[in-house]
Amino acid sequence: MRARALIDGASFGPDALKAVSQAFDQAWAQIASHFGGDPSVTDAARIALANAILSVASDDSRDVEVLKRAGLEALAHNYRSLPIGKSKTRT
Questions:
Q1: What is the pTM of this model?
Q2: Under a CB-based contact definition with an 8 Å cutoff, are residues 71 and 23 in contact?
Q3: Is residue 57 within 8 Å of 20, Cβ to Cβ?
Q4: Most buried of 3, 16, 24, 73 (most Cβ within 10 A)?
Q5: What's the CA gap between 14 and 12, in Å, rounded?
Q6: Which helix (H) or strand (E) holds 46?
Q7: Rg of the chain taking only CA atoms, in angstroms
Q8: 3-state class of 91 per DSSP?
Q9: What is the pLDDT of residues 9-65, one digit of tens each?
């Protein structure tokens, strides 16, 4: 998957990369149900989440919870730019 490739290709040390990967997995598990159905929407959301987490990570990153929370906040901030719910009626 492209999101996983982004994370795996990040230029962080092994400890930071492990924390980033765990943060991504935990964050995705928390929000995956919001992006079901269309594989292109799911892929776009996963890429956006990976980029959000990578944007707040550094080589000193070790706290999975901090990375997860920051990534989710960044994703929520940019939620309107994702191709999500275009075919659904929002209430």
A1: 0.82
A2: yes
A3: yes
A4: 24
A5: 6
A6: helix 39-56
A7: 13
A8: coil
A9: 999 999 999 999 999 999 999 999 888 778 888 898 999 999 999 999 999 989 999
